[in-house]
Predict the 3D structure of the following.
Amino acid sequence: MSSPSSGRRPAIAVTVGEPAGIGPEISIRAAWARRHEVNCVLLGDAAYLAMIAHEIDPAIRLSALSLQALRNGGLPHFGPASVSVVDIPLAAHVRAGVLDKENGRSVLATLDAAIEGVRAGWFAAVVTAPLQKSTINDAGVAFSGHTEYFAERSGTAQVVMMLAGQPLGHTPQLPQLRVALATTHLPLKDVAAALSVAGLGVTLDIIDRDLRRRFGIVAPRILVAGLNPHAGEGGYLGREEIDIIAPAIAAAQARDIDARGPYPADTLFQPRHLHEADCVLAMYHDQGLPVLKYATFGNGVNITLGLPLIRTSVDHGTALDLAARGLGLADCASMEQAITSALAMVAAGG
C-alpha cells in the first residue's frame, strides 16, 4: 500500500460533482491527462464514470475500488496505466443536463469519503468538481456550498474562500492574482451585517497563515477592499470602512500582518496595485470574483483556506446546458489547474 505522498505520484481525491453536469467528464479528462505525475483518485459512481470514459476515449482505463476496501487495507497503488475510482453509487439514472434530487445525497457522500480519506491518510489533498446546490437542498439536506460543508465536517470554525489564477493577455504581465472573500454565499442585503472587526481579523489571520504555510510566501501582502462605493467616501456613502474594516486592518498590522486599505474596489484591481499584492480581500462574492474570473478566463482555481486539509476546486459551475449537448465540449483547464495547485500546496508541505 502507498501513502498519499510516497513515490513520485501523490494521491489526490477528486470528487466528480453533479453527475448531470460536466464534472464527471472534466474529472476523467484531467485525471487521465495528469496520471503520470499524480494519482488522481475519482470519487463517484464507477459504472457511470466507466461509461463516460469509454465514450470520451476507449483508451482510458479506470480501476474500481470500494470504500470498504480502502477502509480495510488503504489505497492500493495501480500505477499510471489506469485511474482509480472509489465507487460511490448513484441512486437514480443520470440524464445529462437534467437534475435529479435522488442523487443529491450520493454527491454529498463523495465529499464525506474525500474527508475521510484525508484523515485516514489515503489522500494528500482534495480537488472538487462543481456540484448543484439546489439538488442537494431538494434532497432534504441544508447545503450552501462546498466551502461551508468542508468547514462544518472538519469542525473548522471559520474558513476563507480564495480564488486564484494567472491573468491572461495583460500588459505588463501580472503575477498570479488571488482574491479572498470576507463573506461567501450570502444575499447582498445581508453582507454588511455579516462584517465585524473580529471576523475580519480572523479572516486576515487565516489568509496570512495559509499564504505562508501552503504557498511558501514569507511575508504576504494583503490589500483590502472597502464595502461601499469609493470605500465609503469618508463616511458619506457608509461607515463600514470607518467602523469595521479600517480597525480590523489596524489590529492585523499590530499582529505583524501586512494588510493595507480599505481601498475603493472599482480602482483596486489595477496592475499598479496588484503588483504589490499577494492577495486581495474582497468583502463579498460578486465584488471580487467577477474580476478574477474575467482576468483568468476559465483557468482559475477555488481554494479553501483555514481547513486542516488542502482543498481546491474549479472556478466554474456545473454547465448543465453544455453537458446536455454531449461529451467533448467541456474545457477541463480549470480542473487541471486545480490539480496543479493542490500538488503545489502538497509539495510546499501544507
About this structure: The first helix runs from residue 23 to 33. The chain is about 40% helix and 15% strand. Residues 312 and 342 are 6 Å apart (CA to CA).
